[in-house]
UniProtKB/TrEMBL annotation:
One GO MF term: phosphoenolpyruvate-protein phosphotransferase activity
Predominant location category: cytoplasm
EC category name: transferase
Protein name: Phosphoenolpyruvate-protein phosphotransferase
Organism of provenance: Liquorilactobacillus sucicola DSM 21376 = JCM 15457
Protein location: Cytoplasm
Length: 573
């Protein structure tokens, strides 16, 4: 019998394939004393040899799919497994204390991990602690006879089933084989969901019990349009969804015809539709989908894709590639927004109770100015190759914006003095994603060249509802009048100062929100590239004067999200 799972629709499209369980196995073991140390050492050696074999395959795959740099981490793991001191210590422990290999491995590696983690002034050595932890897990899995899943080893079409996917897990997914994914937790604006849209992989997040309902190898249909998954579907169901998939492809082909068209409403008002990107490689998808700008380049993905802080030159190349690829159209690069659900293995941050409310984004940049200044120099140099704008993430106060801008001006002046070519009209703006900032938008508009509303965070902070927590996803209400009023305040404040406002949160591509946003006078909509053409098609049909009336009613008269949705339906009939 077919089982049905309901989750949050994260990325459009339909997929059907066998389930691949990306679930961490239980690696707990019992300690035991042993009589035959030689046999135990042999068991350990076999596990180490198996782990090495596996790592060699993963390394080759990673090098082929992701590049040599990405593969280096696995070389580091192989080196650890050949380290005579580490291995010698484990063997000695088995011999001297007559304990089983699992216990000896764990005790010795724990000592090394503690030692490296203690080197707080040496980020490189701290990072080695993570490597040893990974390697220990791999050897343990072989000792225990369980398999550690690895997306790099997938070589047939699958649907990934996972409790959660981190952005770096998602980055490793190979579109050729990974046809879709479903996770237990997460929300529509968690970063793995955002990336699934960039990669155009149909996805469902927050499905609750995917990992306990689905077993390895079962056929799963992912309906990323509705957020439904069917496990062990019947032939009729497979046929029905194949038809739905065809219809979706046809609809996409119709939208494609608008690729080179301008974004104009029925009454002739122009809007800019931009794409959100994570790396320069995404520029191709942006232009293929008719982007008129890049409204958000999440530069932190450059940091997350590297094994150490990216150098000024590496960053310069990436920003240059993006502005050149957009051929004179504006590219808004957001400075590093690390923290929350975006971590850097080589920049260990102290563990926090509330990472989304903690040390992140501009707070890190203003504190670690070495990192910030390197990024700003790279951006300034790249500005000479196209139309580049910069914005700062998570600005809460006027003081933060002024400080960040001052650092930018200092770096600019230094480069100009050195004779480096730098554009003279770089717009410097800020993300509007903290309610405090939205309330003083009139003040901030005096300093910031533009605003880009980050609704993903603005909504979670306004509603006090974690954007990645499916249990409170009912509170994640983009159309709630409270959110619409904040947005209105931001747009009006910027217009009063002659500035423009864009939106780069996922709400910008939300088909119910778009008519209201057009009515509120939003200037630029930036979204997952795959949402651009359907949004252009929608805007073509609407009349802005009518949408202004809709927006006024939604912000002034409505009490609930549901009322707003009804109103939009009525106005766009
Ligand atoms: C665009 C945003 O930034 P991010 O999703 O990267 O936090 C946002 O918060 O809306
Ligand atoms: Mg944000």
């Amino acid at each position: 019998m077919t089982k049905m799972l309901k989750g949050i629709a994260a990325s459009d499209g339909i997929a059907a394939a066998k389930a691949y369980m990306l679930v961490q196995p239980d690696l707990s073991f019992s300690e035991a004393s042993i009589d035959d140390p030689e046999a135990e050492i042999k068991r350990l050696e076999e596990a180490v040899a198996a782990a090495k074999n596996e790592l060699k395959i993963i390394k080759e795959k990673a090098a082929a799919n992701l590049g040599a740099e990405e593969a280096e981490v696995f070389e580091a793991h192989l080196t650890i497994l050949s380290d005579p001191e580490l291995m010698g210590n484990i063997n000695d422990k088995i011999k001297d204390e007559k304990v089983n290999a699992e216990k000896a491995l764990k005790d010795v590696t724990d000592t090394f991990i503690a030692m490296f983690e203690g080197m707080t002034d040496n980020a490189y050595m701290q990072e080695r602690a993570g490597d040893i932890r990974d390697v220990t897990k791999r050897v343990l899995s072989h000792l225990l006879g369980v398999t550690l899943p690895n997306p790099a080893l997938i070589d047939e079409e699958v649907v990934i089933v996972a409790h959660d996917l981190t952005p770096s897990d998602t980055a490793q997914l190979d579109r050729k084989y990974v046809k879709g994914f479903i996770t237990d937790i997460g929300g529509r604006t968690s970063h793995s969901a955002i990336m699934s849209r960039t990669l155009e992989i149909p996805a469902i997040v927050g499905a609750g019990s995917a990992t306990t309902t689905i077993s390895e190898g079962q056929t799963v249909i992912i309906d990323g349009i509705e957020g439904n998954a069917l496990v062990d579907p019947s032939n009729e169901e497979l046929k029905k969804y194949a038809e739905k998939s065809d219809a979706f492809a046809k609809q996409k082909a119709e939208w494609k015809e608008l690729k080179d068209a301008k974004t104009v409403t029925a009454d002739g008002k122009n809007f800019i539709l931009g794409a959100n990107i994570g790396t320069p490689k995404d520029v191709e998808g942006a232009t293929d989908n008719g982007a008129e700008a890049v409204g958000l380049f999440r530069s932190e993905f450059l940091y997350m894709d590297a094994s150490e802080l990216p150098s000024e030159d590496d960053q310069f190349e990436a920003y240059k590639q993006a502005v050149e690829g957009m051929n004179g159209k504006q590219v808004v690069v957001r400075t590093m927004d690390i923290g929350g659900d975006k971590e850097l293995p080589y920049l260990p941050l102290p563990e926090e109770m509330n990472p989304f409310l903690g040390y992140r984004a501009i707070r890190i940049s203003l504190d670690r100015q070495d990192i910030f200044r390197t990024q700003l120099r790279a951006l300034l140099r790249a500005s000479n190759y196209g139309k580049l704008a910069i914005m700062f993430p998570m600005i809460a106060t006027v003081k933060e914006f002024k400080e960040a801008k001052a650092v930018f001006e200092e770096e600019k002046e230094k480069l100009v003095k050195k004779g480096v070519a730098v554009s003279n009209d770089i717009e410097v703006g800020m993300m509007m994603e903290i309610p405090a900032a939205a309330m003083i938008a009139d003040k901030l508009a005096q300093y910031s060249d533009f605003f880009s509303i980050g609704t993903n965070d603005l909504i979670q902070y306004s509603m006090a509802a974690d954007r990645g927590n499916e249990r409170v996803s009912y509170l994640y209400q983009p159309y709630n009048p409270s959110i619409l009023r904040l947005i209105k305040n931001i747009i009006d404040a910027s217009h009063k100062e002659g500035k423009w406002t864009g939106m780069c949160g996922e709400m910008a591509g939300d088909q119910i929100a778009v008519p209201i946003l057009a009515g509120l006078g939003l200037d630029e909509f930036s979204m997952s590239a795959t949402s651009i053409l359907k949004t252009r098609s929608l805007l073509k049909k609407i009349d802005t004067t009518k949408m202004q009336e809709l927006a006024k009613k939604a912000t002034d008269d409505c009490e609930t999200t549901e009322e707003v949705v009804e109103l939009v339906k009525e106005y766009t009939k």
